[in-house]
Amino acid sequence: MITSIQKLIKELARHGIEAGFDEISKLEEYLKLVLKWSKKTTIVSKRIGENELLGLLFDSLIAAKVIEGERVADLGTGAGFPGIPLAIHFPLKRFTLVDVVRKKCIFLQYAKDVLNLDNVEIFCDSWDRLGGYYDTVISMGTGLERVRKVAKCVLRKGGRFVYITNRDKNCFIETRNPFIKARTCVIVSRETNWD
Question: What pTM was estimated for this model as a whole?
Answer without folding.
Answer: 0.92
